[in-house]
Amino acid sequence: MSFFRRGPGRVTPAEAARRVADGTAVLLDVRESSEWDAGHAPDAIHLPLSRLAGGASLPDSAAGRQVVVICRSGNRSRQAARMVADRGSRTVDVVGGMTAWAAEGLPVRDRRGAAGTVA
């Protein structure tokens, strides 16, 4: 028996993209606005960790779906995934974050919809 609480699971960027594409999950990007503007996954929704920690609600599009949380490298998303899970949602975070997402060749778009970069 473990006395440590187990956190939400983790998925690869490819698995996250698959879950979002098949409609079983919503991708929640918890980076700050300047990072989001530089480049994000096209189907992601944006809710900075600072707002989530301040009590902001999840978007309606997350209702009844798994929440896949992503940040730049995976540190903030791990923290955010725990917060979301504590609120009762099924959640996982993306190992390696947007850095790994881009490295796997998955799309990254800037705020105008053009090719973006991970900031």
Find the CATH topology: Oxidized Rhodanese, domain 1
What is the C-level CATH assignment? Answer: Alpha Beta
| Strand-residue proportion | 15-25%
Mean pLDDT: 93
Structural class: alpha/beta
**Count of the separate structural domains:** 1
Poorly predicted ranges: 1-5
State the total count of DSSP E strands.
5
Q: In which range does the helix fraction lie?
A: 25-40%
Tell me, what's the shape? globular
- Using only C-alpha atoms, the radius of gyration works out to 13 Å
Summed up:
By secondary structure, this protein is α/β, with parallel strands linked by helices. It has 5 helices and 5 strands.
Structure description:
This protein has 119 residues and is α/β, with parallel strands linked by helices. The protein has a single domain, classed as Oxidized Rhodanese, domain 1 (3-Layer(aba) Sandwich), CATH 3.40.250. Helices cover 33% and strands 16% of the residues. It has five helices and five strands. It has helices spanning 13-21, 33-38, 49-53, 75-86, 97-103; strands spanning 9-11, 25-29, 45-46, 66-70, 91-94. Strands 1-5-4-2-3 form a five-stranded parallel sheet, sandwiched between helices. The longest helix has 12 residues, at 75-86. Mean pLDDT is 93; it is low at 1-5.
Keywords:
alpha/beta, 16% strand, Oxidized Rhodanese, domain 1, globular
Topology:
Layout: E1 9-11, H1 13-21, E2 25-29, H2 33-38, E3 45-46, H3 49-53, E4 66-70, H4 75-86, E5 91-94, H5 97-103
Parallel strand pairs: 1-5, 2-3, 2-4, 4-5
